[in-house]
Each structure stands twice: as C-alpha cells, then as structure tokens.
Amino acid sequence: MPIVIRFVRSIGLASDGIVALEKTAMPFTPSHVEAVTPDGFYLGAHLSGGVQKRPKNYDAGKFSHELFLTLEGTTDSRSAQFYNFLQVHIGEPYDWKAILGFLIPEHEHTLDHAICSALITLALRACEWFPFPLAAPAHLVDPRDLLLMISSRQHVPM
Fold first, then answer.
1. Structural domains present in the chain
2. CA dihedral of 12, 150, 113, 8, whole degrees rounded to 10
3. Number of Cβ atoms within 10 Å of the Cβ of 158
C-alpha cells in the first residue's frame, strides 16, 4: 500500500494569497496538499470543515494544477502508520492561528488544530518517512515547503 500525496494550486483569492507568500516552486506553486487514502478519498485539512475525508471530485473545477506523488521508500507498515495518523486527526479544527503566523513575524499555532501542510508533514514524521526531526515546526511548513522537502528525497516530475 503506497503513500500518495496530492498537491493542488486552487483557484481563488485565498489560494492566491498562499501562493504569493510561498513564492515559486516547480512544476507549480501549490496552495493545498492532502493524502489520497487507499480507498480513494482525499484526506486533508481545509478552512471549511477542518480535517476531513472528502470524495475524489470534491474540488472539481476549483484548481488550476494538480500533482500526485507516490512516495518512494514506503513499506506496508510505514503506510499503515501514515494513514492511521491521519485517521486519528479527522474532525480536528482548522488552525487559523498558523495561517496568521505566516503573515506576521510571530510563532502562532493552536494545539489540536491543523493546516493542510502541517497535517501531512506530521503524518510523514509519524511514519518516519522523514526520519529526523525537522528544522521548523510543522505548522510553519507550507505546501511549497513540503513539496521542496519531498523533492530532496525523490524525483518530482516537472
């Protein structure tokens, strides 16, 4: 069972703001990231509804770019740990303060709340796909940062 991550560049003002803060990435600058579950759902954190499992087409027509990455170096055990971590966080509220922390020079975050990139980063730490502690707290990792970190371990198609 592989770990599959989905990066998207959503359409809209909020997404435009995220991309403006993130700067440039290749093949595109993502504004959202989530996991593709083994049963084909998308599991991630959203402004509306927090951490949820959503049907595959929930955002059809609402994004301009999409990238699926099957992570290399995963085992069934590692994948199970990754997806179990995410499952436990379903229902967790969105972390508005973490978004504020990207805008002002403060370290903002609310415990037991999540933004999309922090959720996936923590799941990758929980299953030890990222084997070492990271140099920044997960709530300060944006989707572009996560794509950059993954690209240091495996090929990302351009």
1. 4-151 (3.90.1720.10)
2. 20
3. 7
Residue with the two structure tokens 């240091």: 152
> 151: which 2 tokens?
């690209």
β partners of residue 74: none
Q: Residue 23, by phi and psi: left (phi above 0), alpha (psi -120 to 50) or beta?
A: left
Q: What is the pLDDT of residues 21-49, one digit of tens each?
A: 777 778 888 989 999 999 999 999 998 89
Q: How far apart are CA 70 and CA 140, in angstroms?
A: 24
Q: Which two tokens stand for residue 157?
A: 């198609």
Taking the complete model, does pTM exceed 0.70, yes or no? yes
CB 14 within 8 A of CB 65: no
Measured CA to CA, the distance from residue 112 to residue 127 in angstroms comes to 19
Half-sphere exposure of 136 (CA within 13 A, CB side): 17
Within a 10 A sphere around the Cβ of 26, how many other Cβ atoms? 11
pLDDT per residue as tens digits for the range 45-104: 998 899 999 999 999 998 989 999 999 999 999 999 999 999 999 999 988 778 776 666
